[in-house]
Design goal:
single chain; 380 residues; alpha/beta; 7-stranded mixed β-sheet; 12 helices; 40% helix; globular
Length: 380
Protein backbone atom coordinates (compact mmCIF):
# COMPACT_ATOMS: atom_id res chain seq x y z
CA UNK A 1 0.00 0.00 0.00
CA UNK A 2 1.11 3.56 -0.76
CA UNK A 3 -0.85 6.11 1.26
CA UNK A 4 -0.79 9.60 -0.26
CA UNK A 5 -3.81 11.16 1.44
CA UNK A 6 -2.21 12.46 4.63
CA UNK A 7 -4.03 15.78 4.43
CA UNK A 8 -7.22 13.81 5.09
CA UNK A 9 -5.80 11.92 8.05
CA UNK A 10 -2.55 10.34 9.16
CA UNK A 11 -1.38 7.06 10.61
CA UNK A 12 -1.01 7.48 14.37
CA UNK A 13 2.55 7.35 15.63
CA UNK A 14 3.25 4.22 17.68
CA UNK A 15 4.44 6.41 20.55
CA UNK A 16 1.13 8.32 20.52
CA UNK A 17 -0.94 5.14 20.37
CA UNK A 18 0.91 3.70 23.37
CA UNK A 19 0.30 6.84 25.39
CA UNK A 20 -3.40 6.85 24.45
CA UNK A 21 -3.72 3.25 25.63
CA UNK A 22 -2.03 4.10 28.93
CA UNK A 23 -4.46 6.94 29.60
CA UNK A 24 -7.43 4.76 28.69
CA UNK A 25 -6.50 1.67 30.69
CA UNK A 26 -4.19 2.78 33.51
CA UNK A 27 -4.11 6.52 34.16
CA UNK A 28 -7.76 7.03 33.21
CA UNK A 29 -8.76 9.44 35.99
CA UNK A 30 -10.84 12.54 35.30
CA UNK A 31 -8.48 15.55 35.59
CA UNK A 32 -11.32 17.60 37.10
CA UNK A 33 -11.54 15.30 40.14
CA UNK A 34 -9.90 16.29 43.43
CA UNK A 35 -7.99 13.18 44.55
CA UNK A 36 -4.29 12.58 43.98
CA UNK A 37 -4.23 10.40 40.84
CA UNK A 38 -6.63 12.80 39.09
CA UNK A 39 -4.49 15.79 40.06
CA UNK A 40 -1.49 14.01 38.54
CA UNK A 41 -3.44 13.61 35.28
CA UNK A 42 -4.39 17.30 35.38
CA UNK A 43 -0.70 18.21 35.68
CA UNK A 44 0.09 16.00 32.67
CA UNK A 45 -2.66 17.67 30.62
CA UNK A 46 -1.29 21.09 31.52
CA UNK A 47 2.16 19.90 30.47
CA UNK A 48 0.67 19.01 27.08
CA UNK A 49 -0.90 22.46 26.95
CA UNK A 50 2.52 23.97 27.62
CA UNK A 51 4.12 22.01 24.76
CA UNK A 52 1.62 23.34 22.22
CA UNK A 53 2.08 26.86 23.54
CA UNK A 54 5.86 26.64 23.28
CA UNK A 55 5.59 25.30 19.72
CA UNK A 56 3.71 28.39 18.49
CA UNK A 57 5.31 30.92 20.90
CA UNK A 58 2.33 31.67 23.14
CA UNK A 59 1.50 31.01 26.81
CA UNK A 60 -0.21 27.85 28.14
CA UNK A 61 -3.31 29.62 29.46
CA UNK A 62 -4.06 30.71 25.89
CA UNK A 63 -4.56 27.11 24.70
CA UNK A 64 -8.03 25.50 24.75
CA UNK A 65 -8.31 21.77 24.05
CA UNK A 66 -11.11 20.80 21.63
CA UNK A 67 -12.33 17.79 19.68
CA UNK A 68 -10.50 18.93 16.53
CA UNK A 69 -10.21 21.69 13.97
CA UNK A 70 -13.86 21.89 12.96
CA UNK A 71 -14.86 22.64 16.54
CA UNK A 72 -11.90 25.01 16.94
CA UNK A 73 -12.78 26.90 13.76
CA UNK A 74 -16.46 27.14 14.66
CA UNK A 75 -15.64 28.21 18.21
CA UNK A 76 -13.28 30.90 16.95
CA UNK A 77 -16.16 32.52 15.07
CA UNK A 78 -18.86 32.11 17.71
CA UNK A 79 -16.72 32.84 20.75
CA UNK A 80 -15.35 36.04 19.24
CA UNK A 81 -18.44 37.38 17.49
CA UNK A 82 -20.74 36.82 20.48
CA UNK A 83 -18.38 38.98 22.55
CA UNK A 84 -18.65 41.90 20.11
CA UNK A 85 -21.30 44.59 19.95
CA UNK A 86 -23.27 44.90 16.75
CA UNK A 87 -22.75 43.29 13.40
CA UNK A 88 -20.22 44.24 10.76
CA UNK A 89 -18.16 42.61 8.09
CA UNK A 90 -16.49 39.21 8.11
CA UNK A 91 -13.70 38.50 5.59
CA UNK A 92 -12.41 35.03 4.78
CA UNK A 93 -10.39 33.79 1.85
CA UNK A 94 -12.13 32.15 -1.10
CA UNK A 95 -10.10 28.97 -0.56
CA UNK A 96 -10.80 28.22 3.11
CA UNK A 97 -11.64 24.76 4.40
CA UNK A 98 -15.42 24.15 4.61
CA UNK A 99 -15.33 24.43 8.42
CA UNK A 100 -14.39 28.10 7.94
CA UNK A 101 -15.98 28.88 4.57
CA UNK A 102 -19.42 27.46 5.41
CA UNK A 103 -19.35 28.86 8.94
CA UNK A 104 -18.71 32.35 7.56
CA UNK A 105 -21.60 31.96 5.13
CA UNK A 106 -23.94 31.10 8.00
CA UNK A 107 -23.19 34.45 9.62
CA UNK A 108 -24.57 36.20 6.55
CA UNK A 109 -27.97 34.81 7.63
CA UNK A 110 -27.82 36.65 10.95
CA UNK A 111 -26.90 40.11 9.76
CA UNK A 112 -23.19 40.08 9.03
CA UNK A 113 -21.80 41.10 5.67
CA UNK A 114 -19.53 38.27 4.54
CA UNK A 115 -16.87 38.92 1.90
CA UNK A 116 -14.35 36.60 0.28
CA UNK A 117 -10.83 37.73 -0.57
CA UNK A 118 -9.34 36.19 -3.70
CA UNK A 119 -6.08 34.37 -4.31
CA UNK A 120 -3.39 34.49 -6.96
CA UNK A 121 -2.66 31.77 -9.50
CA UNK A 122 -0.61 29.82 -6.96
CA UNK A 123 -3.43 29.78 -4.39
CA UNK A 124 -1.93 32.36 -2.01
CA UNK A 125 -4.24 35.01 -0.58
CA UNK A 126 -3.97 38.33 -2.41
CA UNK A 127 -2.84 40.61 0.41
CA UNK A 128 -3.29 43.77 -1.68
CA UNK A 129 -6.90 42.80 -2.34
CA UNK A 130 -7.39 42.17 1.36
CA UNK A 131 -5.98 45.60 2.18
CA UNK A 132 -8.51 47.19 -0.18
CA UNK A 133 -11.34 45.41 1.68
CA UNK A 134 -10.32 46.32 5.23
CA UNK A 135 -12.01 49.07 7.22
CA UNK A 136 -13.28 50.01 10.67
CA UNK A 137 -16.46 47.93 10.22
CA UNK A 138 -14.54 44.65 9.79
CA UNK A 139 -15.05 42.43 12.83
CA UNK A 140 -13.39 39.15 11.95
CA UNK A 141 -10.89 37.85 9.38
CA UNK A 142 -10.02 34.19 8.86
CA UNK A 143 -7.12 33.18 6.61
CA UNK A 144 -5.63 29.68 6.57
CA UNK A 145 -1.92 29.16 7.14
CA UNK A 146 -1.54 26.46 4.46
CA UNK A 147 -4.10 25.52 1.84
CA UNK A 148 -5.21 21.93 2.29
CA UNK A 149 -5.52 21.22 -1.45
CA UNK A 150 -2.54 23.01 -3.04
CA UNK A 151 -0.05 23.52 -0.20
CA UNK A 152 0.07 27.28 -0.79
CA UNK A 153 1.53 29.07 2.26
CA UNK A 154 -0.02 32.41 3.13
CA UNK A 155 1.90 35.43 4.40
CA UNK A 156 0.15 35.64 7.76
CA UNK A 157 2.43 38.37 9.22
CA UNK A 158 1.55 40.61 6.25
CA UNK A 159 -2.15 39.88 6.76
CA UNK A 160 -1.91 40.61 10.48
CA UNK A 161 -0.01 43.86 9.99
CA UNK A 162 -2.58 45.02 7.42
CA UNK A 163 -5.39 44.35 9.89
CA UNK A 164 -3.59 46.18 12.72
CA UNK A 165 -3.12 49.16 10.41
CA UNK A 166 -6.48 49.32 8.64
CA UNK A 167 -8.98 47.42 10.80
CA UNK A 168 -7.63 47.58 14.37
CA UNK A 169 -10.92 46.42 15.84
CA UNK A 170 -10.92 43.17 13.84
CA UNK A 171 -9.65 39.79 14.99
CA UNK A 172 -7.53 37.48 12.85
CA UNK A 173 -8.17 33.75 13.05
CA UNK A 174 -5.77 31.34 11.32
CA UNK A 175 -6.68 27.76 10.46
CA UNK A 176 -3.32 26.11 11.09
CA UNK A 177 -4.42 22.52 10.45
CA UNK A 178 -2.12 21.88 7.48
CA UNK A 179 0.69 24.09 8.74
CA UNK A 180 1.23 23.16 12.38
CA UNK A 181 4.62 21.41 12.84
CA UNK A 182 5.27 21.34 9.07
CA UNK A 183 5.60 25.08 8.37
CA UNK A 184 7.18 27.39 10.99
CA UNK A 185 4.64 29.71 12.61
CA UNK A 186 4.55 32.33 15.34
CA UNK A 187 0.98 32.65 16.63
CA UNK A 188 1.70 36.13 17.91
CA UNK A 189 0.83 37.19 14.36
CA UNK A 190 -2.81 36.27 14.91
CA UNK A 191 -5.49 36.35 17.60
CA UNK A 192 -6.62 32.73 17.23
CA UNK A 193 -5.08 29.59 15.74
CA UNK A 194 -6.66 26.16 15.19
CA UNK A 195 -5.00 22.75 14.98
CA UNK A 196 -6.09 19.13 14.72
CA UNK A 197 -4.24 16.11 16.11
CA UNK A 198 -5.01 13.56 13.45
CA UNK A 199 -3.27 15.66 10.80
CA UNK A 200 0.12 15.12 12.48
CA UNK A 201 -0.08 11.48 13.62
CA UNK A 202 -2.15 11.83 16.78
CA UNK A 203 -5.55 10.13 17.11
CA UNK A 204 -8.75 11.55 15.66
CA UNK A 205 -11.06 13.55 17.90
CA UNK A 206 -8.63 15.93 19.58
CA UNK A 207 -7.31 19.37 18.71
CA UNK A 208 -6.76 22.82 20.14
CA UNK A 209 -7.53 26.50 19.72
CA UNK A 210 -5.16 29.29 20.72
CA UNK A 211 -6.94 32.47 21.83
CA UNK A 212 -4.82 35.50 22.67
CA UNK A 213 -5.27 36.54 26.31
CA UNK A 214 -6.49 40.06 25.63
CA UNK A 215 -9.15 38.86 23.18
CA UNK A 216 -12.79 39.25 24.23
CA UNK A 217 -13.95 35.68 23.84
CA UNK A 218 -17.02 33.84 25.16
CA UNK A 219 -15.85 30.34 24.30
CA UNK A 220 -17.86 27.40 23.06
CA UNK A 221 -20.03 24.81 24.76
CA UNK A 222 -21.21 25.38 28.33
CA UNK A 223 -21.44 22.95 31.19
CA UNK A 224 -18.94 22.03 33.89
CA UNK A 225 -16.58 24.92 33.22
CA UNK A 226 -13.54 23.01 31.98
CA UNK A 227 -10.81 24.81 29.98
CA UNK A 228 -11.16 27.93 32.16
CA UNK A 229 -14.87 28.04 31.44
CA UNK A 230 -14.32 28.40 27.70
CA UNK A 231 -15.02 24.84 26.56
CA UNK A 232 -16.95 22.62 28.93
CA UNK A 233 -16.82 18.84 28.78
CA UNK A 234 -14.72 16.12 30.38
CA UNK A 235 -11.19 16.38 29.04
CA UNK A 236 -10.21 13.70 26.52
CA UNK A 237 -7.04 12.87 28.42
CA UNK A 238 -6.10 9.91 26.22
CA UNK A 239 -6.36 12.05 23.09
CA UNK A 240 -4.65 15.08 24.63
CA UNK A 241 -1.72 13.06 25.93
CA UNK A 242 -1.41 11.11 22.67
CA UNK A 243 -1.37 14.41 20.79
CA UNK A 244 1.34 15.60 23.15
CA UNK A 245 3.40 12.48 22.35
CA UNK A 246 2.94 13.06 18.62
CA UNK A 247 4.06 16.68 18.94
CA UNK A 248 7.09 15.58 20.95
CA UNK A 249 8.11 13.03 18.31
CA UNK A 250 7.51 15.43 15.42
CA UNK A 251 9.48 18.18 17.14
CA UNK A 252 12.41 15.89 17.91
CA UNK A 253 12.64 14.74 14.28
CA UNK A 254 11.37 17.92 12.64
CA UNK A 255 14.26 18.53 10.26
CA UNK A 256 14.40 14.89 9.20
CA UNK A 257 10.64 14.70 8.63
CA UNK A 258 10.33 17.97 6.71
CA UNK A 259 13.38 17.32 4.53
CA UNK A 260 12.10 13.82 3.80
CA UNK A 261 8.68 15.07 2.73
CA UNK A 262 10.18 17.78 0.53
CA UNK A 263 12.41 15.16 -1.12
CA UNK A 264 9.40 12.94 -1.80
CA UNK A 265 7.34 15.85 -3.08
CA UNK A 266 10.08 16.94 -5.48
CA UNK A 267 10.64 13.40 -6.72
CA UNK A 268 6.93 12.86 -7.33
CA UNK A 269 6.60 16.22 -9.09
CA UNK A 270 9.61 15.54 -11.31
CA UNK A 271 8.23 12.12 -12.19
CA UNK A 272 4.71 13.18 -13.09
CA UNK A 273 5.83 16.26 -15.02
CA UNK A 274 7.33 13.84 -17.54
CA UNK A 275 3.79 12.66 -18.37
CA UNK A 276 2.38 14.61 -21.32
CA UNK A 277 -0.31 17.21 -20.62
CA UNK A 278 0.29 17.22 -16.87
CA UNK A 279 0.25 20.46 -14.89
CA UNK A 280 1.19 21.27 -11.30
CA UNK A 281 -1.50 23.34 -9.56
CA UNK A 282 -0.27 25.70 -6.89
CA UNK A 283 3.07 27.17 -5.84
CA UNK A 284 6.53 26.10 -6.96
CA UNK A 285 7.68 22.98 -5.15
CA UNK A 286 10.03 24.79 -2.76
CA UNK A 287 7.55 27.60 -2.07
CA UNK A 288 4.68 25.43 -0.84
CA UNK A 289 4.21 23.27 2.23
CA UNK A 290 6.46 20.17 2.25
CA UNK A 291 3.66 17.63 2.15
CA UNK A 292 1.07 18.73 -0.45
CA UNK A 293 1.22 18.47 -4.24
CA UNK A 294 -1.71 19.05 -6.60
CA UNK A 295 -1.56 18.10 -10.28
CA UNK A 296 -3.92 17.87 -13.24
CA UNK A 297 -3.67 15.02 -15.74
CA UNK A 298 -5.52 16.45 -18.70
CA UNK A 299 -8.06 14.26 -20.44
CA UNK A 300 -8.56 12.03 -17.40
CA UNK A 301 -11.15 12.71 -14.72
CA UNK A 302 -9.55 12.87 -11.30
CA UNK A 303 -12.18 10.62 -9.76
CA UNK A 304 -11.56 7.94 -12.39
CA UNK A 305 -7.80 8.08 -11.82
CA UNK A 306 -8.34 7.94 -8.04
CA UNK A 307 -10.28 4.66 -8.30
CA UNK A 308 -7.85 3.18 -10.81
CA UNK A 309 -5.02 3.87 -8.38
CA UNK A 310 -7.11 2.45 -5.55
CA UNK A 311 -7.12 -0.90 -7.36
CA UNK A 312 -3.32 -0.83 -7.03
CA UNK A 313 -3.61 0.14 -3.34
CA UNK A 314 -2.34 3.65 -4.00
CA UNK A 315 -4.54 6.13 -2.19
CA UNK A 316 -4.87 9.77 -3.28
CA UNK A 317 -7.62 12.43 -3.21
CA UNK A 318 -9.42 14.78 -5.55
CA UNK A 319 -9.68 17.48 -2.87
CA UNK A 320 -10.60 18.03 0.76
CA UNK A 321 -11.98 14.90 2.44
CA UNK A 322 -14.70 17.12 3.92
CA UNK A 323 -15.87 18.01 0.38
CA UNK A 324 -15.10 14.81 -1.48
CA UNK A 325 -18.74 13.76 -1.86
CA UNK A 326 -19.86 17.13 -3.19
CA UNK A 327 -20.27 17.25 -6.95
CA UNK A 328 -19.40 20.16 -9.22
CA UNK A 329 -16.45 22.44 -9.69
CA UNK A 330 -13.54 22.55 -7.27
CA UNK A 331 -13.97 25.80 -5.32
CA UNK A 332 -10.26 26.17 -4.52
CA UNK A 333 -8.96 25.54 -8.03
CA UNK A 334 -11.73 27.70 -9.46
CA UNK A 335 -10.65 30.60 -7.25
CA UNK A 336 -7.13 30.18 -8.66
CA UNK A 337 -8.52 30.71 -12.17
CA UNK A 338 -8.10 27.15 -13.44
CA UNK A 339 -10.38 26.11 -16.29
CA UNK A 340 -13.05 23.47 -15.61
CA UNK A 341 -11.25 20.70 -17.53
CA UNK A 342 -8.12 21.26 -15.44
CA UNK A 343 -10.16 21.23 -12.22
CA UNK A 344 -11.88 18.00 -13.25
CA UNK A 345 -8.56 16.24 -13.86
CA UNK A 346 -6.90 17.31 -10.59
CA UNK A 347 -5.46 14.97 -7.99
CA UNK A 348 -4.07 15.90 -4.57
CA UNK A 349 -1.11 13.97 -3.20
CA UNK A 350 -0.31 14.56 0.48
CA UNK A 351 2.70 13.08 2.20
CA UNK A 352 3.94 12.10 5.64
CA UNK A 353 7.28 11.11 7.20
CA UNK A 354 6.30 7.48 6.54
CA UNK A 355 6.51 7.95 2.76
CA UNK A 356 9.67 7.14 0.77
CA UNK A 357 11.24 8.28 -2.48
CA UNK A 358 10.83 4.75 -3.86
CA UNK A 359 7.08 5.03 -3.28
CA UNK A 360 7.08 8.22 -5.35
CA UNK A 361 8.67 6.32 -8.24
CA UNK A 362 6.19 3.47 -7.92
CA UNK A 363 3.19 5.79 -7.70
CA UNK A 364 4.30 7.86 -10.70
CA UNK A 365 4.88 4.73 -12.78
CA UNK A 366 1.39 3.50 -11.92
CA UNK A 367 -0.11 6.87 -12.83
CA UNK A 368 1.70 6.96 -16.16
CA UNK A 369 0.52 3.45 -17.01
CA UNK A 370 -3.09 4.11 -16.04
CA UNK A 371 -3.25 7.43 -17.87
CA UNK A 372 -1.93 5.88 -21.07
CA UNK A 373 -4.81 3.41 -21.00
CA UNK A 374 -7.48 5.92 -20.00
CA UNK A 375 -6.45 8.45 -22.63
CA UNK A 376 -6.39 5.79 -25.30
CA UNK A 377 -9.86 4.66 -24.24
CA UNK A 378 -11.16 8.24 -24.36
CA UNK A 379 -9.85 8.78 -27.89
CA UNK A 380 -11.91 5.81 -29.07
Amino acid sequence: MIYLDNSATTRTFGSAAEVAKKYMTETYFNPSSAYGPAVTVEKAVNGARRRIADTINVTPNEIIFTSGATESNNMAFSGALRAMRGNGRIIVSAVEHPSVFETARRYADVGYEVEFVGVDATGRVNVDMLKSMLGDDVRFVSIMQVNNETGAVNDIPAVYNAIISQAPGALLHVDGVQGFLRVPFNARFCDMYSLSGHKFHAPKGVGALYVRNRTKFLGGQTGGGQENGLRSGTSCTSGIMAMDAAIAQYTEHSREYIDGMYACKKRLADNIKRINDTFINGPAIADGAPHILNASFMGVRGEVLLHALEEKQIYVATGSACSSKKKGKNRILDAMGLKPERQESAIRFSLSPFNTVNEMDEAAAAIESIIAVLRRYKRR
